[in-house]
Amino acid sequence: xxxxxxxxxxxxxxxxxxxxNTELRRDLWPDVLRKLDVRPVGVPWYDWALVGLxxxxxxxxxxxxxxxxxxx
Length: 72
Hints:
It is a single chain. By secondary structure, this protein is mainly alpha-helical. The chain has helices at 3-16, 29-38, 45-60, 63-71. The protein is elongated, with a radius of gyration of 28 Å.
């Protein structure tokens, strides 16, 4: 490609895409803090079931701890 073609392509792309406004319209941090305060942290029941099942498996089969540690 020649330099003239590169310039034409660059100009066509600049015309087809409007300039992007990177300035924020407002501060987002208060919204983040509000969402963190509103939403309670809850652990689903199946997470507790997996923790319990893992504990039972490790107590019943202690060598599984070594197997999982090896693969980490």
